[in-house]
Structure formats: structure tokens, C-alpha cells
Design brief:
Length: about 375
């Protein structure tokens, strides 16, 4: 959304040509801005600040800093403008600081005709057939969950990964399962980006449950050897209520049309909008943030380094590579004391990732994707 604001804010500015006209235009787009060192501080109606360095002669943006000095600070370098109509230009290429790739948008039309159908997403193709029990055996170690599934009738071994935003198959397994590419995409990870093919799986069977016509990614680097054929994330779970029973080593899929019912566990509102389970937590009993619940993370907590410095949080480094412990994590009425943690030095934002060290405190965790909740069932004595 912020990129869209910048793109459209730049459309007429570049045609303005003088400061007075440019400032008048910006007044209509932003509020609460001022000058300093050649930079404009603009405040969106949402309250987020944007610093813009611009060419005063033309109004063209050079650099943009989103949320300057904040938890989500992001720096963009404006690379090029394209002409969308005589005398009207628009940002056509930009690059995020620290990244090699750049975004190019040359598909801009002025005052196009937009039909109602253009404003709706494509129709859903994937659909479930839930079994009588819905129960699937899983193999678990301290730091991994592994499940067997039939993909187009071919047996594979996969990691269960609630932190993954989709289904990812290895290239070798995808070939065995007869997938052909219907497109390509770039996939982001904690360690950068990778190229991926996109294909459609006719059937994915787990126990007595079957998911039909689901789109998957494949062909990236080989995953963990304990789940050599891929990992199963949001693309599998999104249309179901999923219960992971650590005590009995099972995973159960339930039809979302069935009522969720009462629970003896600790139910927490969750967000699945980014393709993973995210819940509100308190770090060290003081800092509210979003915590990604990630069964695919083998260790403890991953925390952006900037959070430690910006908020003066206690972090006791006990290992090399920026790993140690933090004081506490709290979710609802549950507290997790002295969890192991490692610092993510290239990441920003007010979030953490909690993996299997945290999840091993529970007998069961229910992920209700349709209703947007996660329910925790602590082990006795925890």
C-alpha cells in the first residue's frame, strides 16, 4: 500500500516543475510535513512517517524512507520514471536498500476501464475432502515434525511447517510426482530469495483426507534431510482446522464448517494474513509484538537485532553466532521463562519467531485457520 501511495503521489509531481505547485500537491496527499537537510517528512493519515528526498526542480523522488527510525524502517532508492501520458510521469523502477534485485513496473495505464470482475480474486480451485477421522500419524523429534503424504499417488516425506507461507516440494520429488511448471516465482526466506517453479497437484492425500487441485512451489534448494521431499505450509492448512498433538504424535484435519466448540486450552486470536500463524506476545513482560508460531524452526526464538538495541531488552549471550537467552515470553496467561534465542541481524520489524523449543512445552496446539485462532494445551506442570 505504501508503494502504491508513492507511485501515485509521484504521478503529477513530476509534471509540476516548481516548488509551489509541488508543495500544494503534497498538501493534498500528506499531512504534517516539514523540511530539513533537503528532505521532506510526510505523515500518512495512518500516522506512519515517510522521509522523501526529492529533486526540487522536477519533484522527482530520489530516496524514500518508510517509518524512519521506527521498527519497520525501509529504504527505497527510486531508479527510474516512465511516462504514462504526455507530461505525466510515474515511478517505474525502485530498489530496496541492501537488495540486489529491483522492481520494475511498466504496466501502468492512465484512466483504464475497470470492470467489477477485475476487482475480485480468481476463483478458488483447491478443495478438501475430509476423512471420517481426519487423523494423520506424524514422526517427531525434539526439533522437527515429519509427515508422509501421497502427492499424485507418489509417497513422499515432508516437514510440517506452520511458518511457511505455502507448499514447497523438492525438484526431484516434483519430477517423480509428474508436475509440470505452469509459472515461475521468486520466493523469499530468512536468508534471501530463491527462484521457484509453480505447478498444480491433482491430489495430496494425508491419512483419510485429500486436498485436490492445489498450487505448489517446487525446484528450490533441497530441504532438511529429515523431510527430503519438501515442506507443507499455509497452502495445505489454510482451508482446515488443524490440530497438532505432540503427546500422541498425530495431526488431525477438520472441516471448517463444523463448529469449533468449547475448549479447555488457552485460545488466542491469531493472524494468518501473511501465510503463517502470528499471535500477540509480550517479550520480557514489556514489549508487545507479533510472534510467528513456526513448527519448521528447529530451535528457539529468532529476534531482530534492532529490537534488542531499540528497546534495551535483556539478552544474555551464551553461545557464538549471536545466540543466548531472553527473560520471558508471555502469551495470554502463559509464560515461557529464559527461552533460548538467536539474533537475526538483517531483519527489521516488531516481530519474533518461536520454534519447536517453545512448542515442546505443550501437549497439543490447534491452528484454526478459518476462524483465526491458535489454542494451546500446556503439558501438566508447565
Amino acid at each position: 500500500m505504501l508503494i502504491a501511495v508513492l507511485l501515485f503521489a509521484s504521478t503529477s509531481v513530476c509534471a509540476a516543475g516548481d516548488d509551489a505547485q509541488w508543495l500544494k500537491y503534497l498538501h493534498r496527499q500528506f499531512t504534517g510535513f516539514n523540511f530539513g537537510d533537503g528532505t521532506i517528512r510526510a505523515t500518512l493519515s495512518s500516522g506512519m512517517n515517510i522521509d522523501v528526498e526529492a529533486d526540487r526542480a522536477t519533484g522527482a523522488y530520489k530516496y524514500v524512507i518508510l517509518d524512519p527510525g521506527g521498527d519497520y524502517e525501509t529504504i527505497l532508492k527510486i531508479l527510474a520514471y516512465g511516462e504514462v501520458a504526455p507530461g505525466i510521469k510515474m515511478i517505474s523502477s525502485w530498489q530496496y536498500e541492501g537488495e540486489d534485485g529491483k522492481t520494475i513496473d511498466e504496466n501502468v495505464k492512465l484512466n483504464p476501464i475497470v470492470a467489477d470482475s477485475d476487482l475480485h480474486p480468481p476463483p478458488q480451485t483447491a478443495h478438501w475432502s475430509f476423512g471420517a477421522t481426519g487423523v494423520v500419524p506424524i514422526t517427531q523429534t525434539h526439533d522437527r515434525l515429519v509427515v508422509h503424504a501421497l502427492v499424485n499417488g507418489v509417497l513422499g516425506t515432508f516437514l510440517v511447517d506452520t511458518g511457511a507461507d505455502d507448499i514447497y516440494l523438492s525438484g526431484a520429488f516434483a519430477r517423480r510426482a509428474g508436475l509440470s511448471p505452469i509459472g515461475h516465482t521468486e520466493v523469499g526466506t530468512l536468508y534471501g530469495t530463491e527462484l521457484s517453479d509453480i505447478g498444480k497437484v491433482q491430489t495430496m492425500e494425508l491419512g483419510d483426507n485429500t486436498l485436490y487441485d492445489v498450487i505448489v512451489n517446487y525446484g528450490m534448494d533441497e530441504p532438511d534431510p529429515r523431510g527430503p521431499d519438501g515442506l507443507l505450509g499455509y497452502g495445505l492448512f489454510a482451508g482446515a482446522r488443524v490440530s497438532i498433538d505432540f503427546k500422541n504424535s498425530t495431526m488431525t484435519f477438520k472441516d471448517p464448517i463444523d463448529p469449533a466448540g468449547a475448549t479447555s486450552g488457552v485460545r488466542v486470536d491469531a493472524s494468518f494474513g501473511d501465510g503463517h500463524a502470528s499471535i500477540p506476545m509480550l517479550l520480557n513482560k514489556s514489549l508487545g509484538l507479533d510472534a510467528v508460531i513456526d513448527t519448521g524452526a528447529p530451535g528457539g526464538v529468532v529476534i531482530p537485532s534492532r529490537l534488542l538495541s531499540a528497546y534495551g531488552l535483556h539478552f544474555y549471550q551464551t553461545e557464538g553466532g549471536g545466540c543466548g537467552t531472553i527473560d520471558t515470553l508471555t502469551v495470554a496467561s502463559l509464560s515461557y521463562y529464559s527461552p533460548k534465542a538467536c539474533v537475526a541481524y538483517q531483519s527489521t520489524g516488531r516481530w519474533i519467531l518461536v520454534g519447536m523449543d517453545f512448542l515442546n512445552q505443550f501437549d497439543r496446539v490447534d491452528f484454526d485457520y478459518p476462524d483465526g485462532t491458535v489454542t494451546f494445551f500446556p503439558k501438566k506442570g508447565k
